[in-house]
Every structure is written in structure tokens, then in C-alpha cells.
Amino acid sequence: MIPVSAKAAAGKPDPQFLATAIEAVVRAGDLQMAKFGTGVRVEKKGAIDLVTEVDLEVERMFRAMVAERYPNHDVLAEEMEIASTGARHRWVFDPLDGTTNFAHGVPIFCASLALEIDGEAVVAAVYDPNCEELFTAEAGVGSWMNGARLRVSANATVLESMLVTGFPYNIHQKADEFLKVFGQVLKHARAIRRLGSAAIDICWVAAGRMDGFWEASLKPWDTRAAALILEEAGGKVTGMDGKKWDPDAGHIVATNGLIHEEILRIIS
Questions:
Q1: pTM listed for this prediction
Q2: Cβ distance 129 to 110 under 8 Å?
């Protein structure tokens, strides 16, 4: 069982919010796995940016869930542009983070969901259906993976660290710029991996499997939930400029905290 916080029990936030987040991402994972490897329809949003029928099916499922349970809440999700009403509560949802992996039969993808109240993330859930790993968090309370408390790694230098990053969809236009930063980090780190799902990347930093993550050109649904999970595991999240992280800015550095300043110096 996922622990329920005293804060939630007092109604701030409603404990049903976390329950809804968990239900949504697990249902999303079931839909993903039902179609994985079956030759789903794939379309292009850009030269290398893909969308599948599963992305759309999962997002429709979630929007229907919110409309039924919380009709006054907003939803920001990847595939359908629906204008905000300015509600205090906003669900930030990626129905299939790792679409390119999914479309190519690579079993690294997830669903990612956070609830914001007045712009602050208060609960989060990320579900990796291939590993059957459910990552959750409550603001100010902690984060867990399948009910076990998460803690970041204790590695204190980049040389000791395994890092993870991602490539933006405009990589063809900015290859030299990206490779310059990548090369600088590569000179200092023990290893760098590229998994293809920013939400899983950051959750793995929270779990101590990775020590740090950086990426540019992301959207709020890519990172909102996982960033809260990492912070509640003792990690640190900022922009690539070292300033307070803005999910809408698109760039992020997410680490165990111990290597954060060193990573910022390297990528600057």
C-alpha cells in the first residue's frame, strides 16, 4: 500500500487525488501493454516526432475519468489541445512517454501524471508497465516505488556517476549544439545512458539507479510528475541555467543533489 500522508488525511490535498492518479496510470499501462507489439497505427507530428493510436486512446480514457470525477478541473495533456479554464486544479498527463520506443517495439515507456493546485505539484504517479513499477509522490511527504520509500544515490562526483539524457525532437537542427554539451559531460562522467523516456529517466534518478539527468526542449507533461517524485526522494531539480525550475521553460537538470552544481558547471 502507498502511505497516505497526514496532510492528505486532513484534506490537503484530498487523498482521492493520489488514488485517482494511481488508477489512471495503471489503466494507461494496461492499455499500452494490450497494444504493444501489435502493429498499431503510427502518425507523424514532426520529422521524428511520432504519435500512435494508443497515445490518443489513453488520453481519451483519462479525460473521461477527470470529466466524470472532477468536472471543474483542467487537464493539460500531450495530444489534445483543450483551452484552460483557469481552474485551481490542473492534471498534467503524458499518456505514453516514450512513444518512439513503443512504436519500434522497445519496452521502455510509461504513463506520467501530476496534479497541480494553484500551480504547485501536489501528487504524482508514473507507471512503467513493462517492469510493473509504480512511482508515486505526495508533496512534503515522500515518494515511493511499489510502496518502498525512494532515496537518491550517495555518489558525490560526476566521475562516480551514471547519467541519463534525452535528445530533443529538433536534434537535426541543433545537433552541433547538443553534441557539444553531450561531449563535455561525457568527458567527466562514468557513463551516460539514453532511455527514451524522460519520466522514467528522472524516476530512475529518484530510485538511485541513475545519479543525474539533463535535457532541453521538453514539455510539462514529460517532467512534472517525475520531478516531484525526485524532489521527494531527496533530489534536486533546476533549469539548465541553475535557476528555479519552470516546467514550461523546457529545460531541466535533475540530480541526486550532490552532483548538481558540478553538472551545472559542466553544461554551462
A1: 0.91
A2: yes
Residues 163 and 186: their CA atoms lie apart, in Å, by: 9
Locus of grid cell 482521492: 16
Instruction: Say whether pLDDT at 42 is over 80.
Output: no
Residue 14 predicted with pLDDT over 60:
yes
The sign one gets for the Cα dihedral 5, 151, 264, 219 is negative
Residue 52: partners with Cβ closer than 8 Å, 6 or more residues away: 35, 40, 41, 42, 43, 96, 99, 102, 103
Question: Which pLDDT tens digit goes with each residue over 69-92?
Answer: 999 999 999 877 788 889 999 999
Grid-cell match 558547471, residue found:
265
Q: What is the mean pLDDT of the chain?
A: 90
How wide is the angle at C-alpha 138 spanned by C-alphas 134 and 143, nearest 5°?
Answer: 50
Nearest one of 103, 63, 101 to 79, comparing CA atoms: 63
98/108 Cα distance (integer angstroms): 7
**CB within 8 Å of 125: residues ≥ 6 apart:** 18, 21, 22, 24, 25, 112, 113, 114, 134, 135, 136, 137, 225
